Amino acid sequence: MIAQFTGKADAANRLYELGPVSRLSLFQHSKVTMTMVGSVHKLDMRLEEAARSLGATPAVTFRRVVLPALSPALVSAGALCFATSMSAFGTAFTLAQNISVLPVLMYTEYTLSFQIEAASAMAITLGVITLLFNYAYRTIGERG
């Protein structure tokens, strides 16, 4: 419909592709919020006030005080979103018609194309990526 008014099919396709992405991000929003709430409540406001009283701007205070204090929670929220996004087969399968995400592509290769080797290779790749992200999360978590 947008392509009819603008005459540009690419713009319509890009807008069409934003729908599933926005829905998936709304699906992940609650996980990020609940992960971050505890860390934000535990954040010592005296550290921020001390930085401001020593002449730091709000941007510098955020970058040097708040962000390092919240980095373990940010990494945890990112890891949680990554893991649930990689396993969100039903959401992607239902909403995305022209977008290929790895879980849906694996399903298609296995069930419709009967290419078990390709589906297995994708599953191993997804497993390796997940293991690398978990390793990075644990490494950062041990430092913080």
What is the percentage of strand-forming residues?
A: under 5%
Q: Which class in CATH terms?
A: Mainly Alpha
* Low-confidence blocks of residues: 1-5
**Terminal-residue CA separation:** 50 Å
By CATH, the superfamily comes out as MetI-like
CATH topology: MetI-like fold
- SSE order: HHHHHHH
Whole-number tally of structural domains: 1
Summarize the structure.
The chain has helices at about 1-5, 10-40, 45-55, 60-85, 90-95, 100-110, 115-144. The protein is mainly α and about 140 residues long. Helix 3 (about 45-55) packs antiparallel against helix 4 (about 60-85), helix 4 runs antiparallel to helix 7 and helix 6 runs antiparallel to helix 7.
Task: Please explain how this structure is put together.
There is one protein chain. The protein has 144 residues and is an all-alpha fold. The protein has a single domain, classed as MetI-like (MetI-like fold, Orthogonal Bundle). It is built from seven helices and no strands. It has helices at residues 2-6, 9-42, 45-53, 58-86, 89-95, 102-112, 116-143. Mean pLDDT is 77; it is low at 1-5.
Keywords:
144 residues; elongated; single chain; 85% helix; MetI-like fold; mainly alpha
Draw up the topology in text.
Layout: H1 2-6, H2 9-42, H3 45-53, H4 58-86, H5 89-95, H6 102-112, H7 116-143
